[in-house]
Task: inverse folding
């Protein structure tokens, strides 16, 4: 089960649609001041550079970048993100796309449109730090998917172990046939089916005996189960042992015919309380 879950997560993760991220960096630098302008470059950059976040998604910039991107302005807007590097005059533009070529073209077109907007004029200007965009793979992220698949497989394995501890292994395939064997003997009311290896089997039987208000008689379906029946009877509280009319049958895996035979010959006043599979 753990392997199946792990492979399922791995398959789903690796078959996701491909996603790539194209990135360009814009650097602010001073420009020659025209007409005796006295604006200070540092003040202009500190005040205007944060506006790049909004400028990158402005209608004019998106319309200018759209023809070179393969997206419409409406499609391009949600794919754009801007990161400002503090105290550096540097901004990183990122664009998500379905192919490396489109991611590279879109990042270049967006960077050019941002430069053409001339946001820092006349004190400064923007330029590309590197004319060639950087493209990275977002999905499928193989290391991440492999990690998630491993975590899912471990979790499924732990859950399987926990379930098996709650429900002992040998009983998983026996409970149904045991109940069908009892039905074949005419016993159709609920009967507890316990596993002999369950350390709480004797306690569970004690609870049933107390609820019934009478002693329990432990009966093996065949001689080879006599020792197990004696040990089980010895583990019960003294006041619940004896020759009462509440019967506990001790049997083994796939001993259905013998179980049906024993259940069918119980006295009319006997009540089958439980079947213990050793």
Result:
């Amino acid at each position: 089960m753990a392997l199946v879950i792990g492979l399922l997560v791995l398959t789903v993760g690796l078959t996701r649609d491909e996603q790539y991220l194209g990135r360009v960096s814009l650097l602010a630098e001073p420009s020659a001041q025209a007409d005796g302008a006295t604006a200070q470059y540092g003040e202009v950059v500190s005040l205007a550079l944060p506006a790049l976040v909004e400028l990158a998604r402005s209608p004019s910039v998106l319309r200018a970048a759209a023809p070179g991107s393969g997206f419409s302005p409406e499609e391009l807007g949600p794919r754009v993100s801007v990161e400002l590097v503090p105290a550096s005059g540097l901004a990183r533009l990122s664009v998500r796309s379905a192919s490396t070529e489109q991611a590279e073209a879109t990042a270049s077109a967006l960077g050019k449109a941002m430069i053409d907007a001339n946001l820092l004029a006349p004190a400064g200007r923007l330029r590309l730090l590197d004319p060639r965009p950087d493209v990275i793979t977002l999905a499928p992220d193989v290391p991440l998917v492999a990690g998630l698949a491993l975590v899912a497989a471990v979790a499924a394995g732990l859950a399987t172990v926990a379930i098996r501890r709650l429900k002992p292994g040998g009983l998983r395939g026996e409970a149904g046939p045991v109940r069908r064997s009892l039905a074949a003997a005419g016993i159709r009311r609920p009967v507890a089916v316990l596993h002999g290896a369950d350390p709480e089997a004797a306690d569970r039987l004690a609870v049933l005996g107390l609820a019934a208000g009478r002693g329990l008689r432990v009966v093996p379906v065949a001689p080879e189960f006599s020792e197990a029946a004696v040990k089980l009877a010895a583990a019960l509280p003294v006041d619940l042992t004896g020759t009462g009319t509440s019967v506990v049958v001790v049997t083994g895996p796939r001993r259905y015919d013998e179980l049906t035979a024993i259940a069918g010959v119980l006295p009319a006043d006997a009540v089958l309380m439980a079947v213990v599979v050793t």
